[in-house]
Amino acid sequence: MVEDILKAIPIGFGLAFMIGPVFFKLIQTSILKGARAAIVFDIGVVAADIVFILFAFYGSHQFLTEIKDDPNLFFVGGGILIIYGLSTYFRSKTELPTTDNGFVIPEKKNYLGLFVKGFFLNFINVGVLAFWLIMVLGVSSALSMDVDRIFRFFTAIIIAYFITDIGKIVLAKQLKSKLTPLVITKIKKGMGIALIIFGLVLVVKGFIPPEDMSIDDIIDKVQ
């Protein structure tokens, strides 16, 4: 049991540092809205991961295998990211309320909205689906299809991933004292550009034949 958990923890830690739209959005949320808001956003992200894991494990292997290379998934997911990125970029020009010394007043927090954003930003990334499918198929076989061992393994991954994200959130929050309206605008514009780039990458990968996609390519798309 302990051996399975020790093998899972590095995977969860590594996932937390994979560069993607979720990574940047989590840091942005922590800086602009605080640690509590970022944690709620991250819970939404983790919920999407859990849905994928359960979906892959409980009798959906064939269905996921059939749809994971469907180019339409890349086009739809990439298109949503591009639209989201454009919205973030242009909304960064909105006038932000500030104090007399020029620092930004914390934005109002819609925790349900943050949870939903985290869930769908992760859920629309086809790379996440492909990653968990490969993990579930590979791990289930390696663990002799022992349900208890599989459950512990993926639980350890999710917990390690979430705890590492909390560490990132706390570190990002330390930058809050340095925020000014100009810095906020630059952060939001940068986030918008990053989302557009990730969206374009997904769309381009939709034109790549499935047989030319390696496992390394799939992992590169995760988060």
Automatic annotation (TrEMBL):
Origin: domain of life: Bacteria
Keywords: Cell membrane, Membrane, Transmembrane, Transmembrane helix
Entry's transmembrane regions: 6-27, 39-60, 72-90, 111-138, 150-171, 191-208
Pfam family, any one: LysE
Cellular location(s): Cell membrane
Membrane topology, record value: Multi-pass membrane protein
Name of this protein: LysE family transporter
